[in-house]
Design brief:
disordered N terminus, mainly alpha, single chain
Length: about 240
């Protein structure tokens, strides 16, 4: 056994370094998800498209770094998805933009399921598990928002998003995020409503998924925390 400075075992030191490095990517991922969901919408409209694309690109790579296994297998698909996203934006190719949204939806859906799985198999409640539970909820809202944008691009009559000047029914991603998170939390202001059976079914799925996520994840966290509490000391014999 190799003992390093201050008597710390080298293997323990390496494990601690890997843990801290992993936590960094989780923290970055949480910041990026928070930035997409709550911050970009307050910037000027002309900036928002570039900010969303840039932050989604960073979200791809930071999510990749949180994966423990098969990280290399995801690298090429992620590079492909990011490239399509920017090419569709620069050349204004509608079919590529739809393909980009579909790829984004599939990848972030996988990441949401991945974080839920990590929470389920965790032995105890740690700071990383708390981070993963928050990231999972934000990621779930982003996933549904991306899919809403995909459906709107297929048929703008899916939802009653406000018209832009000129009378063209075109909704920006901040509006998709707004409707997605408002529905996920079952708040439902009613200013944007689903108009077709498909969009209504999706809205029901979003609202039910949000409640199930909170109920299941909170139950898991409370159960793990309670199971790890030390039992009270036994009473001395009389």
């Amino acid at each position: 056994m190799r003992v390093g400075f201050l008597g710390i075992d080298e293997n323990e030191k390496n494990a601690l370094t890997r843990f801290n490095f992993s936590n960094f990517w989780h923290q970055l991922l949480l910041f990026l998800a928070f930035f997409i969901a709550f911050i970009i919408a307050v910037f000027p409209q002309d900036w928002q498209g570039h900010l969303y694309r840039s932050t989604l690109s960073l979200l791809f790579f930071s999510a990749l770094m949180t994966i423990n296994k098969h990280r290399r297998a995801f690298l090429v698909p992620i590079l492909f998805a990011v490239a399509i996203q920017w090419i569709a934006s620069v050349f204004e190719l509608n079919f590529l933009e739809m393909a980009s949204k579909l790829l984004n939806f599939l990848f972030f859906l996988y990441m949401t399921v991945y974080f839920i799985k990590e929470i389920v198999i965790a032995g105890k409640v740690t700071s990383r598990v708390i981070l993963e539970s928050i990231i999972g909820y934000l990621m779930l809202g982003i996933v549904f928002s991306i899919f809403i944008g995909f459906l709107v691009q297929v048929d703008p009559a899916m939802f009653s998003f406000p018209d832009v000047p000129g009378g063209v029914n075109y909704s920006h991603f901040n509006e998709h995020l707004y409707f997605g998170f408002v529905t996920l939390s079952t708040l439902g202001y009613g200013d944007i409503v689903p108009l077709l059976p498909i969009s209504r079914s999706l809205t029901i799925l979003i609202s039910v998924s949000g409640q199930l996520y909170l109920a299941i994840i909170i139950a898991l966290l409370v159960g793990k925390y309670a199971s790890k509490k030390e039992p009270p000391p036994a009473a001395p014999p009389v």
